[in-house]
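Example record for the data management plan.
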Amino acid sequence: MKRPCGTFDTDYGQDMAIARTRFQWIVGIVAALIFFVVMPFFTSTDMLSKINIIGIAIIAALGLNILTGYCGQLNFGHSGFIAVGAYITGILITHLGWNWWATVPVAALGTALIGLIFGLPSLRIKGFYIAVTTLAAFYIIMFIIIRSENLTGGIYGLNIGTVQLGNIIFDNEQKFFYLIMFFLVLLTFFAKNIVRGRIGRAFIAIRDNDLAAELMGINIFKYKLLAFAICSAYAGIAGSLFAAYYGYISAEQFTFRESIWYIGYIIVGGMGTIAGTFFGVIFLKVLESIVTGFAPDLSSLLPVLGSQLISGLMIIMFSIVVILFLIFEPRGLYHRWELAKTTIRLWPFLY
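Corresponding structural encoding:
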């Protein structure tokens, strides 16, 4: 690991540390204070809404990156697992009168169990075939949600109501900002420690060569199921936050296109990197906002395209961006971030 001049790692703990120097600690603390203390009070409601949506998407994408980026198991049905978490929360609140906070761990565990069930075929199949299995899982989940009208409300969905913690009612963007960021920081911490520990090393070995990993004594079936469970648990928590934030859920909110978007997030950001998940989600969400902002002007200039211009243009832009990253920067934005840090650290000696 390249470090500032005169700074050396003397043990594995220092080498694996997230912040390795005092300067990094100071910068991190200052940035956190600005982000969590200053920004919510000086940012518009619209901008806070976008940040909250990005935060929920990052939580869901973190789980997918652990499964796909670290363990090498494709998942084309991630949006379906997010729906499971959202509907578990909705059912418990609507039919049983639970408090939202009590539904979060149940949503995580319930979605993890569903992920285990659909992860069972991973022992016998892999690659494209496991991708088709997860695609089938998505349509099975959505079929059950739509047909179970007594529980899920069918095509009409469920009203979730407001989230409350003691006397605090989460009824505006600022309060939801702190709620979502609490889970985001906590789950990022868990994800970072999972992937840099024994479990993460087993995931990477399976991703690189599952046969060699098995010969080294790694129980590949156990770790594949664990990866599916972790990915699904993250999706369940994201779904629970999604339900709380919008206050209403329906099957139309969880589409197959969203599942493809999540794969695009980790490709653009950098597969197999926690920080890359943040880069990918933020980059594509900002791109979506820019395209959405320009779409009305383009629609007025080209009225023949009609009202479908916004969604169609976003799909085109998303596809082009993912293709360009796969061709020219397959390691994602995180790789560029590492190169930029190395360049700054070694300047002016760029060799």
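Summary line stored alongside the record: The radius of gyration is 21 Å.
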